[in-house]
Design brief:
about 625 residues, 20 helices, globular, disordered N terminus, disordered C terminus, Metal_Hydrolase, Amidohydrolase 3 domain-containing protein, Metal-dep_hydrolase_composite
Length: about 625
Amino acid sequence: MATMPVAGLPPVSTNHIADVVVRNAKIYTGDPARPQASAVAIKDGKVTLVGDDADVAALISTQTRVVDALGRRVIPGLNDSHLHVIRGGLNYVLELRWDGVPTLRQALAMLREQAARTPKGQWVRVVGGWSADQFAEKRLPTLAELNAAAPDTPVFVLHLYQSALMNRAALRAAGYTKATPDPRGGQIVRGRNGEPTGMLLAAPSALILYSTLAAAPTLQGEDLKNSTRHFLRELNRFGLTSAIDAAGGFQNFPDNYSTVIDLARAGQLSLRISYHLFPQTPGQEIDDLQRWISMVRPGDGDEWLRLNGAGENLTWSAADFENFTEPRPELAAGYEAGFEKAVRLLMENGWGFRLHATYDETIRRDLAVFEKLAADGLFPAGNRWLFDHAETVSRDSLDRIAALGGAMSIQNRMSFQGEAFVRRYGAGAAAEAPPVRAMLDRGLIVGAGTDATRVSSYNPWVALHWLISGRTVGDLTIYPPQNRVSRETALTMYTQAGAKLTGEQDVKGILKPGFYGDLAILSDDFFTVPEQDIPHIESLLTITGGRIVYAAAEYEGLDDELPTITPEWSPVAHYGGYQATVKPSISGARQAELLGQAVAESEQHRQWRAQRGFTPAATPDIFDTCFVL
């Protein structure tokens, strides 16, 4: 039966009614055919219409959730192309995050309070997302400060890929004594008496840091799901709707993947995850890859959880390290033989891969293997493959990567390690570490990400600020203008490029009909906010697949309620995750201007009250003892 038009609108089939409409917005779509809009409609998880408010009006019914953006900026959901989201989720609620903390004094106060509430047998662990250069004091905590803050509770503080600090209780818990030998590639710093001081050094391998952290208690059972759901919500807080998990050490398949698999089955993921598989046992890499190839193929899964390939290590012997306080590592002679077997196996079976490579020396050796295999027709062969990090990649290597059909994924590790890089290699070398513009000029796909959570923060706006400003979290400018990118280019690297790296460029990264309904309403307009305020942007409302997965400010309560954080003593339960601070532009003259506005509003309020008889019309005499003789 035909329905009566309402308010002059023609009847619309219920098949076309939108589930969600966002209106009254400044939408950056990423679609060259329609780059700007004011409204978007989503049904069954996908965008059905992008236009203005009048265009979407006909798709609204009483069943449609209508979100008024209040004139705010809306962007496609962000996609971190290199995030250790699976491992990060398994540990999130156990970690005291110093991400964004402005002073060491505040960081130590948080540590002291957390130690007091942490039960016996558990550790206080600060694992990544911060740098000593972000603190006003510009230094690390001392071992004496850690011991004073937590005399009885084990404390482990990881600082980048460089070092870790442990208090005396943590040394006892980890079993480090005078007799403990230094592991290969690492150093246990000792005092004059030979006893460990509590300082661990990556020299240059960070395995000593991560193996020590692995000795701490872990979550079990439902707590793993709880932790992962809260971590995903924290990522949604910043407008992230997708991430490519780069796997990593101590992330075994399938055991450490079971939590996200269970959440995907239950429909409880709020972030789309494409994951990689990383052989964990040296000498067994080929066997593991062969086993996985017989079980699954890249692309298997669905829009929420899917396999993307192998890496970021294929063989342990081919991996370099990224500790810029140490000399470049010398990789084993002849690692190419095993590495070639792994690459050939993957390429012949249609698997893509990603490779951790910090230095051009490593990249050149890897490229020589690929060029050898190209003679057999294996490169370029349509498989998606890429280099990660690549801080010192040369232009010649970039040309070779382009010729072989490769891509790049870069992360803002230099936001946190830029000062260390400059001290070792000089400002000239740091100016192109990595050479972002040279990558883009060659037409390479260049995805952007963070490499969180053990070094960089997971906050994507810190990474976007790094790309645009060329500055570290310690406010050191390391990149000249010619190696920075525009805001639009940076956003494209954080949306469309990531989709291309997973083969989802036809459904993700742009707001247009047929694409996923993934978007974020921002607290500030990314395109006009002062540059120094970019790291302070957050999402006020994040939608993934037409579902509101994060809501704050005026929208608070529109997202699904999560279970209470467990365990109850969790640092995240008390401090949250990333520590937001006042925007830099809200200081100095601007602060005085805002105070002036407040004074004017106060006088208007006084006049309003006087007009209604709530207060005397005359200004009362003010008695000030400073003027009493």
